[in-house]
Design a protein that fits this description.
InterPro entries: Mem_transp_PIN-like, Na+/solute_symporter_sf. By secondary structure, this protein is an all-alpha fold. It has helices spanning 2-24, 32-55, 63-83, 92-103, 107-148, 155-163, 166-180, 189-210, 214-218, 220-245, 249-259, 266-274, 278-307. The chain has one domain (2-307): Na+/H+ antiporter like fold.
Length: 309
């Protein structure tokens, strides 16, 4: 397992490092990266999720158990984070960044790793994971922003953030297409497949370009606590819930993988838009992205041993 995970991580490390190098050397104009991230978030990644779910053989996959395991474990950790709020010496906007750092995950890394480990089946499992926890995480984060962010959201604003999320729309659209048996038209299917495939390398390059470590040194406590919760508490909660749901095999490995992913760079964008602490969010994202290359193999190996013991 460890060797397979490290091998699947290798292209991710290379692409993220290349993104950092391209940004540092200013090979591309600085304005390219935000636009590339926007393209990936609103077009390419939704195409990947829609195509993956619409064409997957879901009958052979434990869709219900996988979704239930992910949703319940995420809710457990989110409730724990909120309960710990009085113990944290941070203001409201900073708490929103800490919360995002503990529950939000990086789709690009997750899908790339799942595909590297399990091929087409991994992409289908990753799409199910996204369909389950993207809506869950976004609902939780928007609610926390509404309560603790400096830009207070109305009920209408919360609803808009949820129903217009492109990842939610792409995932649910793919599930609906699958359930209705509509299929994807022959001319459109290869185009969507190509767009989805382009999302992974472009997204990883953007992650490397967006990494910002200066903020991490200013917020050692919140950054460290977010990382401990992300790489320890979340996977442990997932294993405990999986024992109740009976989830096992590649589906459990994929669930553990997604619950041990570093925070997405989109968390920084959300922090800027909804009144969070954006510099702190940048520090958490950068630190977790680096730690993930050690934490993910350890989490998958150790917890799979525990599960199979």
């Amino acid at each position: 397992m460890t060797g397979a995970v490290l091998l699947a991580l290798l292209p991710i490390v290379i692409l993220i490092a290349l993104g950092m190098l391209l940004r540092h050397r200013r090979f591309l104009d600085d304005g390219f990266w935000p636009q590339a991230e926007r393209l990936g978030y609103f077009v390419l990644l939704p195409c990947l999720f829609f195509h993956g779910l619409a064409t997957a053989h879901l009958k052979s996959l434990p869709v219900g158990d996988l979704a239930l395991t992910l949703i319940l474990s995420t809710l457990v950790v989110a409730a724990l984070v909120v309960a710990m709020r009085p113990l944290m010496k941070v203001n409201g906007p900073a708490f929103t960044s800490v919360f995002q750092g503990r529950v939000r995950f990086n789709n690009y890394v997750g899908v790339t790793l799942a595909a590297g480990l399990f091929g087409a089946k991994g992409i289908a499992l990753a799409a199910i994971c996204n369909a389950a926890i993207v809506p869950t995480v976004n609902i939780l984060c928007v609610m926390v922003f509404a309560r603790h962010g400096s830009a207070k959201l109305t009920g209408r604003g919360i609803l808009k953030q949820l129903v217009t999320n492109p990842l939610v729309v792409g995932s649910l659209g793919g599930i609906a297409n699958q359930m209705l048996g509509l299929g994807i038209p022959p001319g459109l299917e290869p185009a969507m497949r190509a767009l989805g495939a382009a999302s992974l390398p472009l997204g990883l390059l953007c992650i490397g370009a967006a990494l910002e470590f200066r903020s991490a040194r200013q917020w050692v406590g919140p950054v460290a606590s977010s990382s401990v919760m992300k790489f320890l508490a979340m996977p442990v909660a997932t294993v405990l819930v999986a024992r109740l749901t009976g989830l096992k095999g590649p589906a459990l490995t994929t669930a553990l993988l997604f619950q041990a992913l570093p925070t997405a760079s989109s968390a920084y964008i959300l922090a800027r838009q909804l009144g969070g602490d954006a510099p702190l969010m940048a520090g958490i994202t950068a630190t977790q992205t680096v730690l993930a290359f050690v934490a993910i193999p350890l989490v998958l190996t150790s917890l799979n041993i525990v599960v199979n013991f």
